[in-house]
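## Example pair
The file below holds two records. Each record gives the amino-acid sequence first, followed by its C-alpha cell line.
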Amino acid sequence: MQGTVATFDEESHSGTVLLDDGTRLEFPADAFAASGLRLLRLGQRVRLDRAPDGSISALAMITMPAG
C-alpha cells in the first residue's frame, strides 16, 4: 500500500499518511524507526507495511525500478 505524508513531527517521529482514497492513517514513532529513514517531508510518497492489527508497522521510500 502507498500513501502521501500529510504530517510529520520531527521531535516525536510520528505522523499521518493520506492514502489515495483520502483515508488518513496515523503512524507511530516505531514505524518511522523501522524505516531506517532520517526524515520525512510533507507530500513525500511512501510504501506502508501494516501489522496484522492493521496499524502501520513500517514506512519505506518508493524507488524507481531499474530500467
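Second record, same layout:
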Amino acid sequence: MSVTGTVQSPLKLTFDKEHTGLLYYVDKAEDTEDVHGKGRIYVQYANGKSKRTKNIFFLHFYPRVAEGSTVNVPFKAEGSPAC
C-alpha cells in the first residue's frame, strides 16, 4: 500500500491487519498532526474502486484501508485572492 498526495514524505508501507484505520497510515507519512485536506482524503482499493471521507458538519468518517490500497491526500486549495 502507498500514501501519496500532499504529505511530507510519500511512501510505500506494508499493510498491517491490526491497523485498518486511515489516519494511522497518513500519520506514518506526515510526521505532524496537521494534515491539509483531511476531510478530502480518499482510498483507492486494489480492485479499482475508491471511497472518500464523508463529512457531516465537523465530523469526519474515514474509509477503512485494505491490503493493496492507495491513500491519497489531496491538496487543500487556499481561498481565492481578494480583488
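Notes on the second record: DSSP finds one helix and seven strands in the chain. The chain has a mean pLDDT of 76.
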